[in-house]
Amino acid sequence: MSIxxxxxxxxxxxxxxxxxxxxxxxxxxxxxxxxxLIEQMQExxxxxxxxxxxxxxxxxxxxxxxxxxxxQRQSLQANAPDVEDGLFLVPRVLD
Amino acid sequence: MYNKSIKQLSDSLHKKELSxxxxxxxxxxxxxxxxxxxNSVITLNETNALVAAEQADLQIQRGESNALxxxxxxxxxxxCTKGLRTSCGSKMLDNFISPYDAxxxxxxxxxxxxxxxxxxxxxFAMGSSNExxxxxxxxxxxxxNTVPGGSSGGSASAVAARLAPxxxxxxxxxxxxxxxxxxxxxxxKPTYGRVSRYGMIAFASSLDQGGAMTKSAExxxxxxQAMVGFDPNDSTSLDKPVEDYSASLGDSIKGLTVGLPKExxxxxxxxxxxxxxxxxxxxxxxxxxxxxxxxxxxxxxxxPAYYVVAPAECSANLSRFDGVRFGYRCENPVDLEDxxxxxxxxxxxxxxxxxxxxxxxxxxxxxxxxxxKKAQQVRQLIQEDFTRAFKDVDIIASATAPSVAFSAGxxxxxxxxxxxxxxxxxxxxxxxxxxMSVPCGxxxxxxxxxxxIGNYFAESKLLNVAHQYQQxxxxxxxxxxxxxx
Lengths: 95, 485
What we know:
heterodimer; A: mainly alpha; Histone, subunit A; two-stranded antiparallel ribbon; 2 strands; 32% helix; flat; B: alpha/beta; Amidase signature (AS) enzymes; 15 helices; 13% strand; globular
């Protein structure tokens, strides 16, 4: 599987990942090599094999629907790049 | 003092020959003296550590202590530590002060250990050489021109250089075992779900598992005991009784059956590594174990399957880094999309970006069945191979890594060649099994690791075999030249 420069740009956009223009072609060649490694999986026949969901077949636990989190807004927002009155600030999204 | 076991140090503390404060100061001095060459520790916790050490000394005086009270430790910087920078080796989290403790950190603190600081690591645990860290590469104390392995390379290098008696690590594809092998120390990754992942920054959630990096199996048993156990805060934590790992260390291994997967001993295996591993297996055989060749027919597909599952999960987990709620934010974003793209583009290093892109690609519309589903089916086949093997054998042994520590820069520009350095360790993560690495000799004066793989929940058996091996050998006691007194 060969990944072209336009594929890199598309994937980077999907992942909201800024990539320098000068690096696009080297990413394309590195990602192609990695996909080449991944393609080795196609050697084995897997029709009818159940995909593994959990190594020990454990199901998700349920807990009572009770609020357990205490309010830690201040300590959690202490790490935010930009906050005002308890709100996270981002560039204007609506004109 | 630097080469003493947890038990010996604890005895000295309890006999009042030494205080925890003195012990911590001793290791801080070692860190300051030696770490300039190694770069294994990225954050020191000196003031708080000395306060915690005083508390530990009081507990010992009051008789409220246990095996780990007052013992210094380093945490891999992937574990959240309240009030202390938790960077995960990334520019993205260079300014992140965790508001809470990881469960493993909390449990170890409750057991009385004193955190000296945080260790360097590959960025977001993605790497096998510790060269992807934002804080620069870590050096291997056995040869400063070589890498310590990764991603827990800082912990491995620090324990090998005796900068702390013990350190935490995490293992997603070999990140405890491979650096343990490269640095000549003992490392154990327990069964998936044994150590809580709460507060352990997520890379690939179905594979990530915390564990212990120590000088010996005896120390690993004591340390791991304090880390494991059910945690309601981790939805994949196992609610199952835990064995007493130290209780069975002294058991005889007579009659034990050790499986050698023929796929791990093929003609491709480096001859000098093979020789050391076979010598180690011979020691175990002479202690009364049976040796049996086994086959894991699909194990050669573990690296390809891993490089679908791990990047796919990483692309989902790392979507939380958006430049809005915590972590790095770019300067002067023009709009929200620019804020996301530049914060992530500038905050993540190249290896993390490659893996996010591979993950986004294999999960993108139309490719799910061909890649992610296929990889999970291959994973099932690999697990079935192990299940079949464990019907005939008690443990499996192999080399931990296909080579000794390689030179810095040697594989940095070739991701696929770097990925293949985890060829013997990755299958264990895909199947969720426990595994460990113990030192078994030297090639070109660099340590070689023997990997031991157990069935689910067989941590006691692994530690028992490793301890018995270490009673008959002294590779684990070797200290790299230049890092003595």
